[in-house]
Amino acid sequence: MPVQPSPVVMGIETSCDETGVALVRDGVLLGEALSTSMDQHARYGGVVPEIAARAHVQALVPCVRAALASAGLTAADIGAVAVTAGPGLATALHVGVSAAKAYATALDVPLYGVHHLAGHLAADLVDGEPLPDPLIALIVSGGHTSLLRVGDLARDPIVHLGDTLDDAAGECFDKVARVLGLPYPGGPAVDREAVGNDPAALAFPRPLTGRTDAPYTFSFSGLKTAVARWVEAHPDSAVPAGDVIASFQEAVVDVLTAKAIRACRDHEIGDLLIVGGVAANSRLRALAAQRCEAAGLRLRIPARKRCTDNGVMIAALGDLLVRSGAAPSRPDLAAMPGAFLDQAQLGVAHPAQHAA
Ligand code: KG4
Ligand code: ZN
Q1: Ligand 1 in reach of 308 Cβ (< 6 A)
Q2: Is residue 348 part of a domain?
Q3: Residue (of 12, 30, 7) closest to 114 by Cα position
Q4: Looking at residue 46, what is its pLDDT?
Q5: Is residue 162 part of a domain?
Q6: Whole-number pLDDT of residue 2
Q7: Which residues contact 204 (CB under 8 A, 6 or more apart)?
Q8: Closest Cα to atom 3, ligand 1: which residue?
Q9: Which one of 21, 157, 233, 270 is CB 3.0 to 4.6 Å from 311, fit for a cystine?
Q10: 87 CB under 6 A from ligand 1?
Q11: Conformational region of residue 266, where left means phi above 0, alpha means psi within -120 to 50, and beta covers everything else
């Protein structure tokens, strides 16, 4: 009997300020397009939801066309549509979800709503190895910081070992950057300014790393305040600004990597995956590699351009769901701005409804 080829999955991402569209079939990336409204938010110091939504409306169809053109395909070749249904900015999510429903209906193909953070977990599945099962995942994005135990990403419940009690790691980078007078978005600016400077110049706190603290729980708002207080208290400091920035960054990545490695060790899991926008941070990547090697763990981090939001990760997750026999999401799929991450797919008619 001839083997049925997998359908081409179109992935759509619009949860924040990036409009991403990509086409993936059978783990192979066929084409992609990305448009960002980041510059339009810079003067406000953070993402303005209405501006982001308007930019998505303007960019979405051109991105679909560009992704198809780069793949040498037409809309008629699309066999399934995957879309970020949440979490994210409500106004922004609505644009992607509405567009995905329209494409799926017009093309008469199945629709898969997916969780944005599960998309991050799938970011380097295209043109790469399957994910190890089980693995410990550290998600570090602008809105979330979590340590997870992940089995089969398409089928198994995702278990939270710990989350942040307050600010996310990316949010902490963005807020501290603002205090230090660096441009938005703060994470890449801190990363750039820290290079070549002394990470040990100042001993900023490492929150929740005491012996009696919850081992996998994070807290970054106190660190943010500590940096702000230090800057206020030392207006004429001889410590160069680059050293302050490098010391702050070191505190964040020290805590992230120490807790991630502890989770691997405690759960006797030999594979660590680090994803999300902050995973693009060069010091986090270097320290994680160094510590994983010392601990005998295998480390996987997507290429830097696949760490921040993009359409490829959503198409890759959609492709994984399709190939694992997942039933499509309900046709009345709704945007879920506050969706909790306990499974990769959202808007499932009957949870655990898998063909095989
Ligand atoms: O995953 P992402 O693109 O969007 C969300 O889902 O939130 O993450 C964006 C976050 C922002 O806070 C941004 O400052 C941070 O990732 N980020 C970085 C770097 N690149 C992006 N943080 C530290 N170093 C970087 N190189
Ligand atoms: Zn993200």
Answers
A1: yes
A2: no
A3: 12
A4: 87
A5: yes
A6: 63
A7: 223, 226, 227, 230, 247, 248, 250, 251
A8: 308
A9: 21
A10: no
A11: alpha
Q: Measured on CA atoms in the order 143, 104, 98, 55, is the torsion positive or negative?
A: positive
**Residues 67, 117: one domain?**
yes
CATH of the domain at 88: 3.30.420.40
Helix, strand, or coil here: 228? helix
Residues 209 and 106 occupy one common structural domain: no
pLDDT digits (tens, 9 = 90+) for 142-175: 999 999 999 999 999 999 999 999 999 999 999 9
Q: Which domain holds residue 48?
A: 8-123+310-324
- Does 166 appear as a known binding residue? no
pLDDT at residue 273 is higher than 50: yes
State phi, psi for 137 to the nearest 5 degrees: -115, 135
Atom of ligand 1 nearest to the CA of 88: 6
Examine the domain organization and report whether 140 and 266 are in the same domain: yes
Count of structural domains within the chain: 2
Q: What is the mean pLDDT of residues 299-311?
A: 97
pLDDT in tens, 46-97: 899 999 999 999 999 999 999 999 999 999 999 999 999 999 999 999 999 9
141 CB within 6 A, ligand 1: yes
Within a domain: 353: no
Interval between CA 151 and ligand 2 midpoint (Å): 21
CA of 168 to the centre of ligand 2 (A): 12
* Residue whose CA is at the smallest distance from ligand 1 atom 22: 187
Tell me, in angstroms, the distance from the centre of ligand 1 to residue 145's CA: 11
160 & 211 share domain:
yes
- Helix-strand-coil split of the chain, %, nearest 5: 40, 20, 40
Note whether residue 129 is domain-resident.
no
Is the beta carbon of 169 within 6 A of some atom in ligand 1? no
Rounded distance from Cα 288 to ligand 2 centre (Å):
20
